[in-house]
Amino acid sequence: MAIADAVDLPIVLYNIPGRCGVGMSPQTVARVFEHQNIVAIKEASGSIDQSSEIRSLCEIPILSGDIR
After folding, report:
1. Quick one: which of 25, 31, 39, 63 could link to 10 by a disulfide (CB 3.0–4.6 Å)?
2. First and final CA of the chain: distance in angstroms?
């Protein structure tokens, strides 16, 4: 949220725990999506359930994919 407050740019959340070291919960995604600068999420946790829960909590556009 601090980054979204500090800039006037669209932000895509990046939820790739294997590359970032930590994942975002669906509840966190829904909460930060309330900020006007958060416009989408790249969701590559590998869990369909995670994407489904995010979708049930908010209408954030979900980009998905994982290259192995």
Report:
1. 39
2. 30
Q: How far apart are CA 10 and CA 4, in angstroms?
A: 8
Is residue 50 annotated as part of the catalytic site, yes or no? no
Q: How far apart are CA 52 and CA 67, in angstroms?
A: 20
The reported pLDDT for the residue numbered 19 is 84
Q: Round to whole Å and give the CA distance between 10 and 20.
A: 20
Catalytic residue among 42, 46, 57, 58: 42
Q: What is the pTM of this model?
A: 0.86
- Alpha-carbon distance of 17 to 23, in angstroms, equals 5
Determine the residue type at 15. N
Are 46 and 68 in contact by the 8 Å Cβ rule? The answer is no
